[in-house]
Specification:
The chain contains 2 helices and 3 strands. With about 130 residues, the chain is an alpha+beta fold. The protein has one domain. Strands 1-2-3 form a 3-stranded antiparallel sheet. A hairpin with a 2-residue loop joins strand 1 and strand 2. Helix 1 packs antiparallel against helix 2. The longest helix is centred in the first third of the chain and has 44 residues. It is rod-shaped, with a radius of gyration of 25 Å.
């Protein structure tokens, strides 16, 4: 008859795997979430800046910035639903354009901000 020994390690790998794998999956999902959030944020900032530059061209209207911002977002993120608002402002007394983009973040869970608002600015060209 064989006796069970306290220092026998048979079967412990399966138990270790079952205990550690959920933690590793949680960390991996958090990293993917962070990367996806940063990508969307960077794309929204770039689109707002591009829209502000388009609206700041000599003779352009602020609506040109909204259109360009929407084009950049659609090209980079696909069907990104975002609220875009372009307006004329003054920065240190100089005329400028501000494009504000508000969009939803693609989050897996309910952790973190659900909505992100970014702005892009450009000085208006004088004819």
């Amino acid at each position: 008859m064989t006796r069970w020994r306290a220092h026998d390690d048979r079967g412990s790998a399966v138990t270790d795997f079952a205990l550690v794998m959920p933690l590793l999956l949680l960390v991996a999902m958090a990293v993917v979430q962070l990367i996806l959030t940063m990508h969307v944020r960077s794309t929204m900032i770039a689109a707002a800046a591009e829209g502000a530059r388009a609206a700041a061209l000599a003779g352009a209207q602020p609506q040109a910035g909204e259109v360009r911002t929407r084009e950049v977002l659609a090209e980079a993120l696909g069907t990104q639903t975002a609220q875009i608002q372009a307006s004329r402002i003054r920065i240190a007394g100089a005329p400028a354009i501000r494009v504000q983009v508000t969009g939803n973040l693609p989050l897996f869970g309910l952790v973190g901000p659900q909505v992100l608002t970014v702005e892009g600015h450009a000085f208006v060209e004088q004819p």
